[in-house]
Amino acid sequence: MTRSKMPDRKKVATANLDSMHRVFTVPEEPSSALARIDQHISENLTGFLQDHIVAVEKDLQEVEQVFSESAIPENPVFVSEQTEFLLDQLVAHSVHTASPSFIGHMTSALPYFMVSLSKIMIALNQNLVKTETSKAFTPLERQVLGMLHRLVYQQDDRFYAKWMHNSNGALGSMCSGGTIANITALWVARNRSLPAEGAFKGVHQSGLHRALKHHGYDDVTVLVSKRGHYSLSKAADLLGIGRDSIKAIPTDNDNRIRVDALEKACEDARHNNTLIMAIVGIAGTTETGNVDPLEQVANIAERYGAYFHVDAAWGGPTLFSHKHRNLLKGIERADSVTIDAHKQLYVPMGTGLVVFKDPEVANAIEHHAQYIIRKGSRDLGSKTLEGSRPGMAMLIHSGLKIIGRSGYEMLIDLGIEKARKFAAMIDAEQDFELISRPELNILTYRYAPRVVQDALPLMAEPERKEANRLLSRLTKSIQKAQRNRGKAFVSRTRLNPYLHHGQDCIVFRVVLANPLTTEEILRDILEEQKKIALEDFLDEYHQSLYALLPEAPKSAVN
Ligand SMILES: Cc1ncc(COP(=O)(O)O)c(C=O)c1O
Description:
By secondary structure, the chain is α/β, with parallel strands linked by helices. 44% of the residues lie in helices and 11% in strands.
């Protein structure tokens, strides 16, 4: 760079300091530039959210190109410029998860008030790790944990008066989602089952190897149905017991844990001198939404003295419904229960929690530090896996008050009713086959022309396998084509349903948690899938499929 082109360093630095001060200063006038930007963002977001298209058709690779620069910009840009960039490149290509035709994942629609109220959380930027940085937010979070504890465990007023704000215990532990909630629960389970004793300092201090040796076990296991969420494997990995320690118990025809197989696994563990660190029941499996027979699982956990955790990340809020809460009977006997607030509590992403039946059980994972979370303080950080955390509890609190118990009950009842209706629609279709009947608000089905459905049980195994493979290819292709068109979104997964002799098949997966999803929308989604199935690009699969039949039909779809 020649001398004449060198920037005036002093001038740039002064100018930067001025603008830096400006950036951190709360503007006095409401009509400031930032207020105009706020308005612009609101209008743009409203436009995006009012449009019911799920996603615009744009290749992911093209979007990646927009975000491919690795150099950090040297010079600052105006907020207005960055706003335009975000609106054009980020918002415009985001997925509209609140669209009523987005029925494929557990990412819920948000009640719109959450957007306005979340400003309070961002503006105050409280840190829930310690009361010194959160003050009123700490009691609020404890109250939210108390409310959800009560939803599960139904203790009386005296219990909550004693424990809600008590620094000697915790009714729960708030975190960023179901994964961390499950890890926290298994962390408690591990430390509880390998405690300090005499000169032995406990697994938390001395590690797993010495803990097993001291307590006289050869191995350790966690028992959960094969439908268990993969976060449990992450927990096993992190807690040093290894992923192989998660024993996947077979399920019955309705994707629920087989109690006889669970009992047998417990017997085997006892026989092999293996510690059963935890038995995990699922209330709402991720893929099919089924609920384990929690009462029976609780009986087994009790009989074998095992820690009992329920992963109700999805199905927990079913407890709001008088009509359906019975499905979760036995959950109140669990030592801990995971609930994801960003699922059926309709709170923004990044909010999960685990509640503990015994408020003192979480003392098993308690951590202290001198400058923060001191012993005896009410600091929430002493019993959470994460350190610094935002005040998301404020949004759960707002949901619980603004929607209320009866409102959540309505949302749960609507979702289950809609899932049943959608299942009936699929049953009535010639060329779709229901794979898992909804117990909650999740169901799976696949594309399978009627003639093929009728012929499958009569086929020899190699042909049946090949037919199932082709049906999977078809279902997958239809799902991808529908997703790419962007009007609606249904997800897909791979199951091995009993009705196909446990053979793997790819299925559509539907999650019905948006109150704005109408029956008409569901019908349109099926219609679009039927149309895609008839398109030329799928001819080859159909031909191969029909060639497997004793008498090949002429047309692709009846
Ligand atoms: C049953 C179950 N448990 C745990 C999780 C993990 O939750 P998160 O994605 O919030 O970490 C999920 C997520 O789908 C789930 O369905």
